[in-house]
Design goal:
Layout lengths: L10 H4 L6 E9 L2 E8 L6 E2 L5 E14 L2 E5 L4 E4 L6 E16 L5 E2 L8
Antiparallel strand pairs: 1-2, 2-7, 3-8, 4-5, 4-6, 4-7
Amino acid sequence: MKDDLPAIVTLFSEASTAEQYDNHALANVNDHVVRISVMTQPYHWHFHPNSDETFLVIEGELVIEFEHGEIQLAPGQMATVSRGVPHRTRPLGRRSVNLTFEAANTETQPSQNISTPG
C-alpha cells in the first residue's frame, strides 16, 4: 500500500527560493529534525543551550564564525557546533545551501557582545 511508503524529499525543490534566508524542516528522525537552510546573507549570532547542531553543506560554501575564529565548509563537508557555543553562519559567495541536524526541541538564544578577530 502506497500510504505506508516514506515520503521522498527532493533537495533541489526544497532549496528553490528567492528569500535571503530560508530555514525549514525536511524530516523528523527519532527526537531530531533535519532542516534545510538557504542563505544569501549572514545569520545573527546565537547559541543553542540544549542541542548540538551539525551542518552539512550541499551547495556553495558556508562560514561558521566563532568568538575566536572561523571555519569554512565546502560541498560535502560537515561540522558540529557543540551546545552552548555562540556562532554565526554566513555564505561564502552568493549563496549557501546546508542541511542541519539538531534536536527537535532545540532552543535558539541570541548572543550579545561578540567581537570577532579581524
